[in-house]
């Protein structure tokens, strides 16, 4: 197929219509509207074969799903609703058509789950690895986007769901764990291959009055430090309250490791971490519990700077050692 036939073929595999979209795929550019009283939220992420994914650990359907999910999660962290997706794929000559079809099927799975439409992008040939760039556009009520910079002393520090699962899942896929029960091994693989962006939780936190928020893409330690730096406050975390899934605990125990290493530094959990005044947190907790979303208080905000962790051994500084593409080895 030539470029235009390939675009038509792949576009047929994903949702392309949305109530806000007037012109979708097939013109020079897409046209969509932002309803009165809303602001646009836009984010872009790139995934490179060999850096962000390898065939040993993920199917092409997994890669397509994750390419959408990583950007959808950014919109969720702002308290927004994802709506449109732009997708650019740089394709090596040796890549099989069936791989691309599976990739777009995974993209469709994520878009259908979160109500998004693919409204454009590009496909190009490359001599290097496959590269995917996803741009997700969403919306949030005017003036209500959750930022990293809103934490204030006295606020509660919270996290949704459990953390560490994706990092443990990746380690399992790469190295195995013969002693882990099959159901727990399956759960860890699912954490890595199909992380769940917290769109509903983000909206609940925004409506309840959360003061700051971030999604956990580079590890909880990294995101906590980003919040502290942006808000110019200190976050005091109780390590015993950090919600780590039992499968992660068992996996780490079998390897003689601390489960918190996966929570702090594993990344790609796509859960939300943030802060809220106590009464706002109580409102959010009640709403989350009513719809089956886990929300846990893990600490508090103080005057100062940085992130400290409270344990039986005392206070330690939590450094931002999550994944960073340009950090020196």
Short description:
The protein has 329 residues and is an alpha+beta fold. The chain has helices spanning 3-11, 60-77, 97-114, 165-175, 182-193, 199-208, 220-231, 246-254, 259-265, 278-290, and strands at residues 21-23, 31-32, 38-48, 81-92, 117-126, 131-141, 156-160, 212-215, 234-238, 272-276, 295-302, 306-311, 314-317. The protein folds into two domains: 3-141, 60s Ribosomal Protein L30, Chain: A (2-Layer Sandwich), CATH 3.30.1330.10; 156-317, Phosphoribosyl-aminoimidazole Synthetase, Chain A, domain 2 (Alpha-Beta Complex), CATH 3.90.650.
Q: Layout of SSEs?
A:
Blueprint: H1 3-11, E1 21-23, E2 31-32, E3 38-48, H2 60-77, E4 81-92, H3 97-114, E5 117-126, E6 131-141, E7 156-160, H4 165-175, H5 182-193, H6 199-208, E8 212-215, H7 220-231, E9 234-238, H8 246-254, H9 259-265, E10 272-276, H10 278-290, E11 295-302, E12 306-311, E13 314-317
Parallel strand pairs: 4-5, 9-12
Antiparallel strand pairs: 1-2, 3-6, 4-6, 7-10, 7-11, 8-10, 9-11, 12-13
Helix pairs in contact: 2-3, 2-6, 4-5, 4-8, 5-8, 6-10
């Amino acid at each position: 197929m030539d470029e235009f036939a390939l675009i038509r073929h792949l576009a047929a595999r994903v949702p392309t219509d949305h109530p806000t979209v007037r012109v979708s795929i097939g013109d020079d550019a897409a046209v969509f509207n932002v309803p009165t009283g809303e602001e646009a939220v836009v984010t872009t992420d790139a995934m490179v074969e060999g850096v962000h994914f390898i065939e040993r650990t993920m199917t092409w359907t997994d890669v397509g799903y994750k390419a959408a999910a990583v950007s959808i999660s950014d919109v969720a962290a702002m308290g927004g609703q994802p709506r449109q997706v732009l997708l650019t794929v740089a394709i090596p000559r040796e890549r099989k058509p069936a791989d691309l079809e599976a990739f777009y099927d995974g993209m469709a799975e994520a878009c259908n789950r979160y109500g998004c439409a693919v409204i454009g992008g590009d496909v190009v040939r490359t001599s290097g690895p496959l590269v995917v760039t996803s741009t997700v556009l969403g919306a949030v009520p005017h003036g209500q986007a959750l930022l990293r910079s809103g934490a204030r002393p006295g606020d509660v520090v919270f996290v949704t769901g459990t953390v560490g699962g994706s990092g443990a899942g990746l380690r399992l896929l790469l190295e195995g764990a013969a002693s882990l029960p099959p159901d727990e091994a399956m759960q860890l693989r699912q954490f890595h291959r199909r992380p769940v962006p917290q769109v509903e939780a983000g909206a609940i936190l925004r409506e309840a009055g959360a003061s700051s928020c971030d999604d956990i893409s580079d590890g909880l330690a990294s995101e906590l430090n980003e919040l502290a730096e942006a808000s110019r406050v200190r976050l005091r975390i109780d390590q015993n309250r950090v919600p780590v899934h039992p499968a992660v605990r068992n996996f780490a125990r079998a390897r003689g490791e601390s489960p918190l290493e996966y929570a702090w530094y594993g990344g790609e959990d796509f859960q939300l971490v943030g802060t809220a005044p106590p009464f706002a947190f109580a409102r959010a907790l009640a709403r989350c519990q009513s719809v089956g979303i886990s929300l846990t208080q893990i600490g508090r905000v103080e005057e100062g700077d940085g992130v400290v962790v409270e344990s039986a051994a005392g206070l330690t500084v939590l450094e931002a050692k999550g994944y960073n593409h340009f950090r020196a080895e």
